[in-house]
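Project standup — Tuesday

K.O.: blocked on the structure for the chain from last sprint. Re-posting the sequence here as requested.
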Amino acid sequence: MTTIKQAIHWMIVKKHLPESCRIRQSSTRSMATDIHCWRQVEALAILKRCCDMPALGWLGDVLTALACTGMRSRTTSADYVHLPRHGHQLGLVNYQRLDDVIRTVALGVGFVELEAFFAGLREGGFAGYVAYEMCSPLRGGGSEENLDRVARTALAVNRRLTA
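H.V.: unblocked you, prediction finished:
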């Protein structure tokens, strides 16, 4: 939970998310785990890949924060889209641009550079598990049919990218 809160805090500071997305839930860290931390060579290779690709600079920043909090031998894949928002300007017949809304979409549909991310994992020697995270609100809604469709797509994309 702490890592997620730190990542969201970073995204708010960098203006990728609005302040309203801040998590205010307190949590305590479990000190007992049987999952080993990433090796230094793995983390450095992934960070180098992020630095070498301008489109992944933001991911390098996030991974640096995660490295400082204890990355584990598993990762999560997800994909997102920016949706523009506008608000009515009182007193005018006009609208002003507001912060984008970020929505979760099926893997391969959004702006996350999944091929580059997984290439960095491979170059770093990552041999852990990959999970797909369906965040709410998910494009298409929360029906069982939509969740199943998105999960099947995620599984196919994860299999292709980890092959």
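K.O.: great, moving the ticket to review. The longest strand covers residues 95-105. The longest helix spans residues 144-162.
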